[in-house]
Write a structure and sequence with these properties.
- With 245 residues, the protein is an alpha/beta fold.
- It is built from eight helices and seven strands, in the order H-H-E-H-E-H-E-E-H-E-H-H-H-E-E.
- It has a domain of 166 residues: Vaccinia Virus protein VP39 (Rossmann fold), CATH 3.40.50.150.
- Helix 5 links the parallel strand 4 and strand 5.
- Helix 2 runs parallel beside helix 3.
- The radius of gyration is 18 Å and the shape is globular.
- The mean pLDDT is 95.
- Bound molecules: ligand GEK.
Length: 245
């Protein structure tokens, strides 16, 4: 992402009652720094979306970037797509994110058409898709809506199409979950976040970012009818899965 963002210090001072996290202007202003320093392997995962685009995008088809934020995945896809007649549909329900995403895209030359859509990803239509990417977005969707969303994506994908889902994961038993959370905490400390920042951010995401186990994700993907599904990347409690229709 070539958008130079401010350093994330949103949780650096004591906040008292920590408010629930929202994708507002304050988050938008620090977003590239926040996600790079919070999600281990973020850039590797974004780059892979470009690699998969080169392999799986079909001529005359659509790619979807669901929960696009500032368009990092869309840009990675756009840079690798050589197939003719491809449209990239980048969707987010935060007006602040999409407005900044528009200015990021305007500054970044791209041959592919990227259409920005302000909507809930549960409400949009998906059709003639050869690549659908959900990088760290499904975790913010109510758990009871996830199966229907995956079924809609499966129905909108062309045969041979590819789905990427990247998520924070939950582990069982609780002792293993605790270990991987602590390793993630160490990762964030090494990125310069203080213990106060890490714990206040965790509180703000409580009951908003809802992680599930790898087994739950794979089971849901398979239940929709995907031919194959596997994690291709994991670092601590973050993973990226690829599924082929
Ligand atoms: C990246 N993929 O840089 N409908 C549409 N958008 C939503 C919804 C919803 N129901 N819920 C949340 N979002 C990006 C990073 S961030 C991940 C994705 C993170 C949007 C929300 O507004 C935000 O922009 C994005 O999903 C999640 O690769 O911040 O941890």
């Amino acid at each position: 992402m070539n958008d130079k963002s401010k350093q994330d210090n949103l949780f650096a001072s004591p906040l008292g009652d920590v408010p629930r996290f929202t994708f507002d202007q304050a988050v938008v202003d620090v977003f590239p720094d926040m996600i790079q320093r919070s999600v281990p392997g973020y850039q590797t995962i974004i780059n892979l979306c470009g690699e998969l685009a080169a392999r799986y995008v079909q001529p005359g088809s659509n790619c979807y970037d669901l929960g696009c934020s500032l368009g990092a995945s869309s840009l990675a896809i756009a840079q690798q797509v050589k197939q003719p007649g491809v449209s990239i549909v980048a969707v987010d329900n935060s007006a602040a994110m999409l407005s900044r995403c528009k200015s990021v895209l305007e500054k970044t030359p791209s041959t592919a058409v990227i259409e920005l859509v302000e909507a809930d990803i549960c409400d949009i239509e998906i059709s003639n898709a050869s690549l659908v990417v959900m990088n760290f977005t499904l975790q913010f969707i109510a758990i009871e809506k996830r199966q229907a969303l995956l079924e809609k994506i499966y129905a909108g994908l062309n045969p041979g199409g590819c789905l990427v889902i990247s998520e924070k994961l939950l582990f069982e038993p609780e002792s293993l979950n605790q270990l991987l959370s602590e390793l993630h905490h160490q990762f964030k400390s090494a990125q310069g976040y203080s213990d106060l920042e890490i714990s206040q951010k965790r509180d703000s995401l409580e009951n908003f970012l809802l992680p599930e186990t790898l087994e739950t994700h794979i089971h849901r993907i398979k239940a929709c009818g995907f031919n194959s599904a596997s994690p291709w990347f994991q670092c601590f409690n973050f993973a990226s899965l690829v599924a082929i229709k």
